[in-house]
Write a structure and sequence with these properties.
Layout (H helix, E strand, L loop, with lengths): L14 E5 L5 E2 L3 H12 L8 H6 L5 H9 L2 H20 L4 E2 L3 H10 L3 E5 L4 H11 L7 E3 L13 H10 L8 E5 L2 H10 L3 E5 L6 H6 L4 E3 L5 H5 L1
Parallel strand pairs: 1-4, 1-6, 4-5, 6-7, 7-8
Antiparallel strand pairs: 2-3
Helix pairs in contact: 1-4, 3-4, 4-6
Length: about 230
């Protein structure tokens, strides 16, 4: 069941924590392509693993590799191979902002809200995406799992780190968490955020987002300023 947002009163949101790939950034399935390349470099057959990769979109990538490969050394090797493969695709011009994403961030900022961008990628990959889009100075803070103690989604650590580091909100109820996966929704629910919004431009559908606790399900992030206004 998906949430009915028509009669919900939106809290006074001061901090907006936005996911990147699938929410504000279109990567055209690059995660799966980079994963397949990484698996092959380790001598593994990616086809048997892709279902798990798709199901865990939004989770910290190193956590996914730990599940798939077991031993830590091999997981770290796979993660490095993944990051290298993804970086090559980014350098090849394969990422773009989703329609209205930059405008949404600028409008939220103009409304007096603080926007933070988060990802399940490692810092070098996140920085490469930001550089490719020209977004290095678009928001005051960007976070990857390592910036928040090493645990990525579905843990709430990045959301709570954004809350503590920006000082933009007085209560976690003044946070909006926005993403395209069930892991984004879980991290928002676990943080206590007042708005946990799923968008339909990425990995998971409305049913999965609603089941994971979304308070709102939106066609795209472009709808967010109107919902919060």
């Amino acid at each position: 069941m998906t949430p009915d947002t028509r009669t919900q009163k939106t809290p006074d949101i001061r901090l907006v924590v936005l996911d990147m790939a699938g929410t504000t950034v279109a990567d055209g399935g690059l995660v799966e392509q980079a994963f397949a390349a990484a698996a092959r470099r380790l001598g593994a057959e990616p086809d048997s693993m892709l279902d798990h990769v798709r199901a865990t979109m939004g989770e910290s990538k190193i956590a996914v590799f730990r599940h798939l490969f077991g031993e830590e050394a091999k997981a770290q090797q796979a993660n490095k191979a993944f990051e290298a493969a993804y970086a090559e695709l980014v350098d090849g011009g394969r990422v773009a902002a989703l329609p209205g994403a930059r405008e949404t961030i600028e409008e939220l900022t103009a409304q007096g809200r603080t926007v933070v961008l988060t990802t399940g990628f490692a810092r070098p990959t996140q920085d490469a995406i930001l550089a490719a889009l020209g977004w290095q100075d678009l928001v005051p803070l960007t976070l990857c799992p390592a910036d928040a103690g090493g645990r990525g989604r579905p843990y709430p650590d990045m959301v709570l780190s954004a809350f503590l580091r920006t000082g933009a909100a007085e209560s976690v109820r003044q946070i909006a968490v926005v993403g395209d996966t069930s892991y984004d929704m879980l991290s928002g629910v676990r943080s206590g955020a007042g708005v946990v919004a799923g968008v339909l431009t990425g990995a998971h559908d409305a049913v999965a987002l609603g089941a994971a606790g979304a308070t709102h399900v939106l066609p795209s992030v472009a709808e967010l300023p109107g919902v919060l206004a």
